């Protein structure tokens, strides 16, 4: 009996050992599969890391090339603008001199022409008088008439020479005016390019940028709506007010102006402006008036916003020179930051 029990225990232990071996085999198999997956994942990550590193290196190289091209383009722009500015200044100075000389020569020519005509009339009258005198000796008349005719021929020749000089000066003046127009057109094109580029890069802290002349400043409307409608849907009311008044300002059929002493001024008695002042206050009224005056100055026929280079610090139109100087200064500042 005891032997039978012992054999049963051995049998159970043997089955238990077999189960343990099977479990160990299963776990070893799982471990091998996990190691295989790990190796595949590690290889994939390694490839991704290599590709990403190569992509970063390529992007850095392209960035360096773009910075180099930007430096070259900026230098070319500065050089071309400086050359055009010098050329334009030289044109203007030469044009002023020639206009002054032209005006002076024209006055002299007009004065001499008047004297020549008067003298020619006097000579002609004297010649007629000599011809009419029947009693004078022909031998005495001939030398006098010959001398007068010689003087008249000399005066006419001098007048023709002066006329040729005047025509030559007028031709030079026309050429200079044509060159001035070309130079002004080039400067206008450069100004348009600056406006286009500066508008894309400006932000709320820009000292010089692009201002849309005729665009209504909406901050006074926001402040007025915040006070007048504190418990209502402010964004909707504010957006509606802004859209309405910007549309009114651009409407060419609305012309709230009057002429006083030959000067165009805002008609403060205009019904819509009075209603705006009463409803939203003085600041909103002045914002609309300012936009109207800007449109009347920059685009009275079209009544749409016109972009203009603007010095926000001084509140006035920015010149081409100070805008370029500001851009170069900003570029140097950004370049210094990238180096650090």
Explain this structure.
The protein is mainly alpha-helical and 340 residues long. 79% of the residues lie in helices and 6% in strands. β2 and β3 form a beta hairpin. It is elongated. The mean pLDDT is 78.
Overall helicity? over 70%
Q: Estimate the mean pLDDT confidence.
A: 78
Radius of gyration, in Å, reads 46 Å
Secondary-structure-derived class: mainly alpha
Q: How much strand? A: 5-15%
> So what's the overall shape?
elongated
Described by strand count, sense and barrel closure, the largest sheet is: 3 strands, antiparallel
- C-alpha end-to-end distance: 92 Å
Query: In what order do the strands lie side by side in the largest sheet?
Result: 1-4-5
The overall strand count is: 5
Taken in chain order, the helices and strands follow as HHEHHEEHHEEH
Unreliable residue stretches: none
Number of helices: 7
Features:
mainly alpha, 5 strands, three-stranded antiparallel beta sheet, elongated, two-stranded antiparallel sheet, 340 residues
Task: Produce a short descriptive summary.
With 340 residues, this protein is mainly alpha-helical.
Topology:
Layout: H1 2-132, H2 138-201, E1 208-213, H3 219-228, H4 234-250, E2 257-260, E3 263-266, H5 271-280, H6 282-298, E4 306-311, E5 316-317, H7 320-339
Antiparallel strand pairs: 1-4, 2-3, 4-5
Helix pairs in contact: 1-2, 2-7, 3-4, 4-6, 5-6
């Amino acid at each position: 009996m005891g032997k039978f029990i012992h054999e049963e225990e051995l049998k159970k232990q043997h089955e238990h050992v077999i189960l343990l071996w099977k479990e160990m085999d299963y776990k070893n198999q799982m471990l091998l599969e996990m190691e295989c997956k790990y190796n595949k994942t590690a290889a994939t990550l390694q490839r991704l890391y290599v590709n990403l590193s190569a992509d970063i290196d390529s992007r850095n190289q392209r960035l360096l090339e773009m910075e180099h091209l930007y430096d070259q383009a900026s230098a070319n722009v500065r050089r071309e603008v400086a050359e055009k500015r010098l050329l334009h200044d030289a044109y203007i100075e030469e044009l002023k001199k020639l206009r002054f000389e032209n005006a002076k020569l024209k006055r002299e020519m007009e004065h001499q022409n008047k004297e020549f005509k008067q003298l020619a009339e006097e000579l002609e009258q004297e010649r007629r008088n000599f011809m009419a005198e029947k009693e004078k000796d022909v031998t005495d008349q001939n030398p006098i008439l010959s001398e007068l005719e010689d003087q008249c021929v000399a005066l006419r020749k001098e007048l023709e020479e002066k006329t040729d000089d005047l025509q030559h000066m007028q031709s030079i003046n026309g050429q200079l005016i044509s060159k001035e127009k070309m130079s002004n057109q080039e400067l206008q094109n450069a100004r348009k390019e600056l406006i286009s580029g500066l508008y894309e890069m400006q932000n709320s802290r820009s000292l010089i940028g692009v201002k849309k002349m005729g665009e209504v400043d909406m901050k006074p409307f926001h402040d007025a709506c915040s006070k007048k409608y504190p418990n209502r849907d402010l964004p909707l009311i504010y957006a509606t007010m802004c859209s309405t008044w910007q549309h009114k300002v651009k409407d060419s059929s609305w012309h709230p102006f009057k002429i006083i002493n030959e000067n165009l001024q805002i008609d403060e008695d205009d019904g819509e402006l009075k209603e705006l002042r009463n409803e939203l206050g003085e600041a909103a009224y002045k914002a609309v008036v300012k936009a109207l005056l800007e449109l009347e100055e920059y685009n009275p026929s079209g009544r749409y916003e016109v972009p203009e280079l603007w010095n926000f610090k001084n509140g006035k139109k920015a010149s081409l020179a100070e805008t370029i100087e500001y851009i170069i200064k900003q570029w140097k500042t950004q370049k210094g930051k990238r180096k650090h």
